[in-house]
Amino acid sequence: MRKRRLDSKRAALTLLVGAALSCGRETPRATDAPADAIQPTDAVRQDATYSISCPPGFNTFIGPPPAGALPFAPLASLKTVANPVFDVDPKTGALILRGDLGAYIADMTSAIQLGKALFWDIQAGSDAKVACATCHFQGGADTRAKNQLNPGANGSFDLQSTNYALAAADFPFVDPITGRNNDNVVGSQGVKRSTFVSIGTNGVESTTPLADPVYGTNIRQATGVNAPTTINAAFNHRNFFNGRAQNIFNGVNPWNDRDPTAKIWKVIDTLGNVQQIDIHIPNAALASQAVGPPLNTTEMSSDGRTFPELGKKMLLVKPLGLQKVDARDSVLGGLAETKVKGLKTTYAALIQKAFQPNLWNTTKTVTVNNKSYTLTQANFSLFWGLAIMLYEGTLIADNSPMDQYVATRTFDAAGNLTASNPALLDPVVNRLAAEGITVPLAAGGTRAVTRADILLGLDLFERPLPAPSVAGLPPGTGVGCSLCHVGAETTSASIRNVTVGVEAGDVAFKNAGFDLRMERMFMGVRAPPPTAPQPPPPVPFLTDAITYDSASYAVTVTSINGVPVTPQAVTVNTYDSGWYNIGVRPTADNIGLGGLDAFGKPLSWTRFYQTTLANPSTIKVGGGGLTCIDSAGNPVAPPAAPVGSPFVGEVLTPGTSVPILSGGLTATEASDVMGSFKTASLRNVEFNGPYFHTGGKSTLRQVIEFYDDGGNFANPETGPLIRPLGLTENQMVGLVAFLVSLTDDRVRFQQAPFDHPELPIPVGQDATGAEVINLLPAVGATGSTTQVPRFLGLNPFQP
Questions:
Q1: Quick check: 133 and 118 in contact, CB under 8 A?
Q2: CB 3.0-4.6 Å disulfide test: which of 2, 51, 93, 748 passes with 787?
Q3: β-pairing, 439-440 with 446-447?
Q4: DSSP character at residue 476
Q5: Residue 761 · residue 134 · CB < 8 Å
Q6: Separation of alpha carbons 560 and 525, rounded Å
Q7: DSSP string covering 504-566
Q8: pLDDT tens digit sequence for 361-404
Q9: Full-model pTM
């Protein structure tokens, strides 16, 4: 996976690549590139084949990596990252309305109230039993265990069935030891299939039952993917596992300008006349995501329901009228009814207070789908998306024990720890002991989790993989988790990572006009050295001569350790940053980011630009390099590089050279997007089980074992860093302990901002076929006295 982080950022970061170039976000340009594409100049051109030699070898040497051979990017507190949804008051530090949202939002507090009410209101479901929160009620995710199964790629249930109650023994769904290969998906049960008829004058939605080939008419359908968390989702550049919720919100649906017909309505004069307008709100993937489920016929909606019809319904009902709201609710408390359910206001009143009058204030009607609606009804998708975005933008969990600990650390220039306060991690150890959570031992018995376990896990997580060594993995080196779970957000799919960059090399590429949403990488050599599992070098170990075609980014090995070899082509692919195929299932089961949008265009930026731009080379893609190093691991310029070559090792000449593999996208180059899914954030993952987009792992230990095995399936598209790791028992325990330390107690105890209204949750049917509803009680700002449960109540250290 992120080979550029392994290669082009070695001592290379004398990376002074050219001058900073301007880039745009929304305004279309004279080129054929999309509105939010970066438009670099064409000052650097690579159009020749070069022979390059590097004794004793590229990126390879004997012994542990010297200090500084790989830039060390320590994990930071999430408090250090700006919330992309809001601006900050320079005097008080308080979150305030983001400047560009003022054209839509009149009152931020009212908009957040509206968003929280809509998110938790089960009346939004066609059956008045399913809200957004139904699939995101615990730690932002869904931990239900009954009637959660989707039959998966083969269309039939393996071992299980509808209304099945999952148990610990069912996991993992894929087990290399027993040979189990269950392609069922643990999704989220939504609605029973039906067809929309009408909205009554009392807000009751009339529907007609519709038979589903899998679930029939009496069983709730389940989604084909596990529900990602909404907590910290504000940091995601795109949302949904396959990225279909675009970073830019068009006010109507998830597709931004992929849907040229998507427009909102606006009052244009004092007479109340209206017209349709295009809007494009950046860094609003939360809004793009929010408008998807309400019309999804598996998740929340009957077939044929539209947003104006949903608006008609919600404007007629009492907000949260079927649910209790705690008077101490951090957002809705002041609006809560004291003796009955719901809020003492209306959705119309909340909208009118929250949004600018030109979006709702007129007596004129508008026509949508040949039906007449009020302006408020017609713009309901805009109100829904932006209000929920502002509410979810408050759901930031940035105060875990690990956040507190890493904030105390300092390092010297070589990446050595010089100061810290590890006692801040002891609350994790103490609360696990109080819960009776211990580590099962392979030889029998158990042991306690220790502070040393957490620190070992952190070291393994944030330290990069070592270069190949005859000695195997040197002590203290990591396994490179942070190469994909990048930055304080713990995901390389974050807004920050794909727009401005998290590491120094990213910033250099950005300043040189490269589009950080894509990367070009060596796929590596998958067979590890015989001494120990190792990360794949970009070329075979001890390669000392290559040819490089800078027009096609083709690399061919011609000599290894001084011995000429039959030319060996090295696989080079381009992919979307933050989206990887990690071998959870065979690629064909779910192609994820490799799929198409609702208009037949690729979801992947890489494939989208390759197939839709007349000249894809206007998109500049950064790439991995081949550091030429001496026997001590010090970078040197390849002595055989031709005079004037744009490739001079990783020492870059400002304005005239770029790293190998970097340059304009070509229409025909290989991409690596099939079966790719968004890199998930790891915060609060302890309470988000089951795991992966299939939900096929039930504990964090099973997740770590998956990575230690090198994935479940060796797909051709699987990222090169997914390979057997050779972890010891203590290392696996350490990684689980580290993940547990990322839990924020406010999430654990449902304290503000993670408090919520009451929620009746469908959890399958009983033996008579009657639906069972579990009631999640309303919780106020101070939270609950008991922590939320883990999936199936399982020990996170249990294999």
A1: no
A2: 748
A3: antiparallel
A4: T
A5: yes
A6: 14
A7: HHHHHHHHTT--TTEEEEE----SPPSSS--PPPSSSTTEEEEEEETTTTEEEEEEETTEEEE
A8: 999 999 999 999 999 999 999 999 999 999 999 999 999 999 99
A9: 0.91
